[in-house]
């Protein structure tokens, strides 16, 4: 069960789980604060825990807020877009027929009808990123399912404001942020491994990190790189 703890200017997502100790985390890209707490912990105890760690929370939120942001996109010719960590230039072609996107030779070709608005162009490009991410995620999910001996029930791909990905251990469903299609491929692989590991360890326990260390010894470097890359202007 998830609730929101109000600490004045700070809101904290609280998730109660079958665990012994409280776990605090600050998540990019918006600095969302989350506490995983034992099921029997009182709200006052959780509040005191959060207040005691306010300096740590603010320090980590400042790091995230200082992170570079992508400029707003207008979806016009020669505009820069990123695909799997590489810079592509947009080429807008206005013609009749179904809207489409094609990536070729460091160019992202956007075909739309004449007079298409910025919002309409964005929807087409966002849809292409979703398809691209789903295509790339399939083999990686299969790879790490086999390695971890787990099975994800269903994959959802969507724009997410506060997370790169998420996993519901109860349903086995995984969600991935479409923004990952703009980042280097190893970032997607790390997030998939991270979320699938939650099917074995629902919280970030030492055992959870032990699994990551065994499966991807350099995962901390990949996470650091991901969290230093420009964030979407959502």
Write up what this structure looks like.
The chain is 37% helix and 27% strand. It is α/β, with parallel strands linked by helices and 234 residues long. It has a 4-stranded mixed β-sheet with strand order 1-2-4-3. Strand 3 and strand 4 (32-38) form a beta hairpin. The radius of gyration is 20 Å and the shape is globular. The relative contact order is 0.12. The model has no long low-confidence stretch (mean pLDDT 91).
List the helices and strands and how they pair.
Elements: E1 2-7, E2 10-17, E3 23-27, E4 32-38, H1 43-52, H2 54-65, E5 80-83, E6 86-94, E7 100-104, E8 107-112, H3 118-148, E9 154-158, E10 165-168, E11 173-177, H4 185-197, H5 206-215, H6 219-228
Parallel strand pairs: 2-4, 6-8, 9-11
Antiparallel strand pairs: 1-2, 3-4, 5-6, 7-8, 10-11
Helix pairs in contact: 3-4, 4-6
Summarize the structure.
The chain is of the alpha/beta class and 234 residues long. The chain has six helices and eleven strands. Helix content is 37%, strand content 27%.
Number of strands: 11
Largest beta sheet: strand ordering: 1-2-4-3
Number of separate helices:
6
The topology string of helices and strands comes to EEEEHHEEEEHEEEHHH
Determine the fraction of residues in helical runs and give it as a percent range. 25-40%
- What's the rounded overall pLDDT mean? 91
Question: Biggest sheet: strands, sense, closure?
Answer: 4 strands, mixed
Q: How widely separated are the two ends?
A: 27 Å
Uncertain residue segments: none
The secondary structure category is alpha/beta
Keyphrases for this structure?
27% strand; four-stranded mixed β-sheet; alpha/beta; globular; 37% helix; single chain; 234 residues
């Amino acid at each position: 069960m998830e609730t929101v703890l109000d600490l004045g200017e700070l809101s904290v997502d609280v998730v109660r789980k079958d665990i012994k100790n409280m776990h605090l985390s600050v998540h990019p890209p918006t600095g969302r604060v989350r506490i995983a707490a034992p099921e029997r912990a009182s709200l006052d105890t959780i509040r005191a825990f959060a207040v005691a760690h306010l300096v740590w929370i603010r320090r980590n939120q400042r790091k995230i807020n200082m992170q570079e942001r992508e400029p707003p996109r207008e979806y016009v010719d020669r505009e820069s877009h990123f695909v799997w960590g590489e810079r592509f230039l947009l080429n807008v072609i206005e013609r009749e027929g179904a809207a489409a996107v094609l990536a070729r030779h460091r160019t992202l070709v956007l075909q739309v009808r004449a007079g298409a608005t910025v919002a309409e162009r964005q929807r087409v490009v966002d849809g292409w990123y979703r398809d691209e991410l789903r295509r790339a995620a399939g083999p990686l999910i299969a790879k790490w399912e086999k390695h971890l001996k787990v099975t994800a029930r269903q994959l959802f791909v969507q724009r997410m404001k506060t997370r790169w990905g998420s996993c519901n251990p109860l349903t086995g469903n995984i969600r991935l942020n479409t923004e990952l299609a703009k980042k280097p491929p190893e970032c997607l692989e790390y997030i998939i491994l991270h979320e699938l590991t939650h099917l074995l360890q629902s919280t970030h326990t030492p055992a959870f990190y032990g699994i990551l260390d065994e499966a991807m010894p350099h995962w901390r470097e990949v996470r650091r790189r991901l969290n230093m890359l420009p964030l979407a202007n959502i």
